[in-house]
Structures are given as structure tokens and as C-alpha cells.
Write a structure and sequence with these properties.
By secondary structure, the chain is an alpha/beta fold. It has 2 domains: 103 residues, Urease, subunit C, domain 1 (Roll), CATH 2.30.40.10; 370 residues, Metal-dependent hydrolases (TIM Barrel, Alpha-Beta Barrel). It is 32% helix and 21% strand. It has 15 helices and 20 strands. Strands 1, 2, 3, 4, 5, 17, 18, 19 and 20 form a 9-stranded mixed β-sheet that branches. The chain has an 8-stranded parallel β-sheet with strand order 6-7-8-9-10-11-12-16. Strands 13-15-14 form a 3-stranded antiparallel β-sheet, with no helix packed on it. α1 links the parallel β6 and β7. The radius of gyration is 21 Å and the shape is globular. 54% of the residues are buried. The structure holds zinc ion. The site of zinc ion has 4 residues, from loops. InterPro entries: Amidohydro_3, D-aminoacylase_insert_dom_sf, DHOase/Allantoinase_Hydrolase, Metal-dep_hydrolase_composite, Metal_Hydrolase.
């Protein structure tokens, strides 16, 4: 006997189109069968009245730690990847994750920003949020066009990361707006040669030219067309902001002509990043973004900046400070809600959180083992409620899409975006015999995010059971704090 069987739930599997009551049997970390009357097992989960679906796959999560995993587990996530930023060096990062153990399946791309920092400033520190903030004190890699020698150094570091199994190349272009098109064309050619995707935070996000979001998308479309590289657009919502209508037209037209471009979005009108980000120092910040300095809020104490002087002073004092950027006022502005819908409901687009690490009130990143998290831990609500919020509001309450389509955006589409270059993803995002046993079981009627900007440290509710790589991590709504079932997701490592 052995194994596990989940009985009597509403099985919703976008890959097969199944949406019916049935059983799911699990053996040795994989789904053994999906059907009815699948008989007994060593362990049975009664899912009567609940939804049984493939675990959600987050393409865009910067937490990458045990506390961040646990919060995302209650958001229905079973696989959490950092593809936008990525890591460098790649092999060392995977070794470290395996050594400490992870609660969710995990993985990362190769980090272009740190390749640039290394090649242009000589500082080859391992990638992390703190190291990123500190690196912003030396603006050469942010503002300068790279020399041919430096481009060579960047490409070598990226190729090394890909050969170590990195899931493509993460391009934080907006954090180094000085990078030239010749360099990025070479980076995309490298991606095309390795047949891997790139994951881009586009270069510019302004609603007005020059250096507008539209200009940045035209560049990205150009990279796809001129190099054949698969260009994945990160957080289509926050990169496009109030100019999303124009950006949607550009991207949709490019896709309709067969260009390899994919899209993701998160269901919030507020972004989050580090204070030293180049776009905050832009003297035309207000005119170009249509948001005042009070739209930028420090996470640790909730302070909203009064003016440019105050922001620049805080930037100089502590560059890696985490801040919120209130871009679309979806609570009070119906038009802004419609704009957010354009990215969140983009056809064929994935839901991805852009989850941030959990920070303590003294600004340090929390990586400890306490559950629940320490009271003063904060991040962004999307780090706790992105997927449950999407299903609660866009699927259940507003019926903007069906449950099958909603789960397609949260699980199957993210897997499909990666499966061509990362074979391990062909066994994820679906419920079928032989696929990985990453399964979320939730109460559709009560599923909800609970994290808010005034109270972020709140786990979502409604996920009754969560199975990660065949291991029940959440049972009857309770987390197994001893469990570390997370497995690495990685491309094959090059020989030699
Ligand atoms: Zn980003």
C-alpha cells in the first residue's frame, strides 16, 4: 500500500480541462493516478467540498528563505523562483539552499545586474538584497555604457551561471538604465544560444517620452525579433503603470506575429523595491510617473516622503531600505482598477507575486525559523497573499475568469513558460499520472488573502492542505514546521 490519496475533492486541472469530483493518488513524490475510487493508501486526505489543484508556481519571488516559503505556502504556492533578479554565482546559491533546506521547491536565474557590478566595479560579492543596495553607492554599473572588455566580462559571468543550471537570465534593466542596447543585444544573443528565457524588468517605466515604458517595450520586442531570445516581461502592471493600454497593444501585436514574448503580473496597484533604485533619483520623477513623492512609503515605519530632498537624503543614508510605491489607486479609482485588469487578465499571462524578503523593524532581513513570523516582520502584502487575492477577487467575487482559467494563470502557464528550457517544469503545474505531487487543496468559498499595507504579516486563509514534492506540508490548515520538502528546480548542469 503506502502513499497518499486525496479523496472526493473538486479536481481542477487546466492541462486536461478536468473540473470534476475525483481522487488524486500520490506515491514516492509523484502523482500515481487521477480518477475515481482510487482505493486506500497509507494516508488519506478527505477533500470533500474542497478544490484540489496543481500547486501554484511563482516565477517572481525574491524572498527565497524558509520564512518567505512558509508565508507563500499559505498562499497556495509549492514552487517559488527568483527569475527577475536571479542569483550569482548560481552553483554556490543552490548549494547553500540545499544545505539549509527549503520548505518549497525553489530555483533561480542568472543575475545580469551582479554580472554587471562584477565586470564594471570589480566587486564580485555574492548576490543578495543587502549587497545590491550597497552596490548602488558606486554608480558606474548603473549609469555607464560597458566597454567591450566589460561586456566580455558580463557575458562570461552569465554563461558561467547558465552552465551551472541557472533558469535563464534575469535582467533588472531599470536598475541599470545606462546599459546600452549593444550590450543587451549580446546578452539576449547569449540567451538564444543557450536556448533559455530572459526575465526583464524593462529599462524605463515612464508614461511620457523620452525613456518611456513604451520605448522600453519597443526595445524588448526588438531584442526578441533581432536575437530570437524568449523575452519574459516581469510585472507588466507596475512597469506599465497608467500607460498600460498602449503597452498592451504593442506587446499583443508582437506576440501575434510569433515573437517569443511572455507576460506576468501581480494583482496590486502598489509596487515595492529598494530606495536607491535609479528611477527614484530622476529629477523628473513626478512628471514622468504621475505620482508624487508621497506615493513612496518606507516599509519599516510607514513614513511617506514629503519631497525630493527628503527622499534623496534617505537614499544616501540607507540605500537598501525597502519602500512601497503606490502607483495605481485601485481602492478609490475605478479607472485604475480597469488599468490593473489589463495586465492581471492579460491573455496567456501568468500571475507572479514579486514577493519581497521579510524585514524586521531594524531593517535587517529575517531568515530565522520562527513560525508565525516575528510580530515586527514586514514585506509587501503580495509576499503573503498574491495568488489567494487573485482567486478571491478576480475569480470568485468578480467572476472575471473561471476557476479553471484562474488556476491556469497560477500554475499551468508559469510551468509552460519555463518547460522548453527547464525540463523539470514539464512535470509541474498539472495533475496527471507521473507529474510531481505539488498539490493545493483549498476551500473555494472562504479562500482569502489577509495581508494589507497596514498589516502585512498575515498569512492567507482557506488553504486546507498543501503537498510539496509528495510531502504534506500543511494539513487541516496547520503547517508542519519540521518539514523541508522543497526540491531544487534547475536546468541541467553543463558537463566538465
Ligand atoms: Zn522588478
Amino acid at each position: 500500500m503506502g502513499g497518499l490519496v486525496i479523496t472526493g475533492g473538486r479536481v481542477v486541472d487546466p492541462a486536461s480541462g478536468m473540473d470534476a469530483v475525483g481522487d488524486v493518488a500520490v506515491m514516492d513524490g509523484r502523482i500515481a493516478a487521477v480518477g475515481t475510487s482510487l482505493g486506500g493508501a497509507e494516508r488519506t486526505i478527505d477533500a470533500t467540498g474542497l478544490v484540489v489543484a496543481p500547486g501554484f508556481i511563482d516565477l517572481h519571488a525574491h524572498g527565497q528563505s524558509i520564512p518567505a516559503d512558509r508565508m507563500q505556502a499559505f498562499d497556495g504556492v509549492t514552487t517559488t523562483l527568483d527569475l527577475e533578479a536571479g542569483v550569482l554565482p548560481v552553483a554556490a546559491w543552490y548549494r547553500r539552499q540545499a544545505a539549509k533546506g527549503r520548505v518549497l521547491n525553489y530555483g533561480a536565474s542568472t543575475n545580469w545586474a551582479f554580472a554587471r557590478i562584477g565586470a564594471m566595479t570589480g566587486s564580485n560579492s555574492e548576490s543578495s538584497l543587502e549587497a545590491f543596495g550597497n552596490a548602488m553607492r558606486d554608480r558606474r554599473w548603473i549609469d555607464n555604457v560597458a566597454s567591450d572588455t566589460e561586456v566580455g566580462g558580463i557575458l562570461d559571468r552569465l554563461a558561467g551561471g547558465l552552465n551551472e543550471g541557472g533558469i535563464g537570465i534575469g535582467i533588472l534593466n531599470a536598475y541599470a538604465p545606462g546599459a546600452g542596447v549593444q550590450e543587451l543585444t549580446a546578452v539576449c544573443q547569449l540567451a538564444a544560444t543557450h536556448d533559455v528565457p530572459t526575465f526583464t524588468h524593462v529599462a524605463f517605466m515612464s508614461r511620457v517620452d523620452p525613456e518611456s515604458a513604451a520605448e522600453a517595450y519597443i526595445r524588448l520586442i526588438g531584442y526578441a525579433g533581432a536575437t530570437g531570445a524568449h523575452m519574459h516581461i516581469c510585472h507588466f502592471n507596475s512597469s506599465s503603470k497608467t500607460d498600460i493600454e498602449r503597452c498592451v497593444k504593442l506587446v499583443a501585436k508582437a506576440q501575434s506575429q510569433g515573437l517569443p514574448i511572455t507576460v506576468e503580473a501581480y494583482p496590486y496597484g502598489t509596487g515595492s523595491t529598494v530606495l536607491a533604485a535609479a528611477f527614484f533619483s530622476d529629477p523628473e520623477f513626478v512628471a514622468r510617473n504621475g505620482t508624487g513623492y508621497d506615493s513612496v512609503q518606507r516599509v519599516a515605519d510607514g513614513r511617506r516622503f514629503r519631497d525630493r530632498e527628503e527622499l534623496l537624503a534617505a537614499q544616501a543614508a540607507e540605500p537598501s531600505t525597502l519602500v512601497l510605491w503606490h502607483i495605481l489607486d485601485i481602492e478609490n479609482n475605478a479607472h485604475h482598477r480597469d488599468l490593473l485588469d489589463m495586465s492581471v487578465l492579460y491573455p496567456g499571462g501568468a500571475i507572479a507575486s514579486d514577493a519581497m524578503p521579510w524585514t524586521l523593524s531594524d531593517g535587517r532581513t529575517y531568515t530565522g525559523d520562527a513560525w508565525p513570523l516575528p510580530k515586527d516582520a514586514t514585506s509587501h502584502p503580495r509576499s503573503a497573499g498574491c495568488f489567494t487575492r487573485f482567486i478571491r477577487e478576480w475569480v470568485r467575487e468578480r467572476r472575471a475568469v473561471s476557476l479553471l482559467e484562474g488556476i491556469r494563470k497560477c500554475a499551468l502557464i508559469p510551468a509552460q513558460i519555463l518547460e522548453h528550457s527547464t525540463p523539470a517544469m514539464r512535470a509541474k503545474g498539472r495533475l496527471a499520472a507521473g507529474t510531481d505531487a505539488d498539490i493545493v487543496v483549498f476551500d473555494y468559498e472562504t479562500l482569502t488573502d489577509r495581508a494589507e499595507f497596514s498589516a502585512m504579516n498575515r498569512a492567507a486563509e482557506g488553504v486546507r492542505h498543501l503537498v510539496v514534492s509528495g510531502h504534506p506540508l500543511i494539513t487541516d490548515g496547520v503547517l508542519d514546521v519540521t518539514a523541508r520538502p522543497g526540491r531544487p528546480v534547475r536546468r541541467p548542469v553543463a558537463e566538465g
